[in-house]
Amino acid sequence: MYRGRTCSLRDDWGCAMKGLLLLSAILVSPPIRIGGNATSVDRSGLDLLLDAIAAVESRNDPGAAGDGGTAVGPYQIHRDYWADATRFLGVDWSYADARDPVKAREVVRAYLLHYGRGCSMMEMARIHNGGPNGHKKAITLEYARRIAATLRDTTAARHRGAAAGS
Fold this sequence. Notes:
It is built from six helices and five strands; from the N terminus they run H-E-E-H-E-E-E-H-H-H-H. By secondary structure, it is mainly alpha-helical. It has one domain: Orthogonal Bundle (Lysozyme), CATH 1.10.530.10. 35% of the residues are buried.
């Protein structure tokens, strides 16, 4: 689906190109405002990013544990990350709630909107992976590439599904 229209099978190539253009626009979008905070992504772009992070981190597995058990849940959240973001949200959620997909998503959203103010989606992904200054760390570049590949694959799959359904 592109701008409210479903792509037909005869314009499959055009639909794929429109999808790639849309993804490119999301990845390099200029800063816009969300709820008074300057950020480079709109709400739907941030939701796509959150989906990609959960897919890369754990394949959306709430029971996942990584980094020797110090990162948990679908977003592989560490205890300090959780403490920061729940403080930003003004909630008193236990770290055990990092395994709750809904709460974990809100925590990641709060963390990225706080530390990622004015950042692109890929910089926000790097912040998730490397902490508040993760977007400045070379070690997070490979993670950003994995997120970008997941976003490309997701967008391509959605366009194939839209084309097949028309």
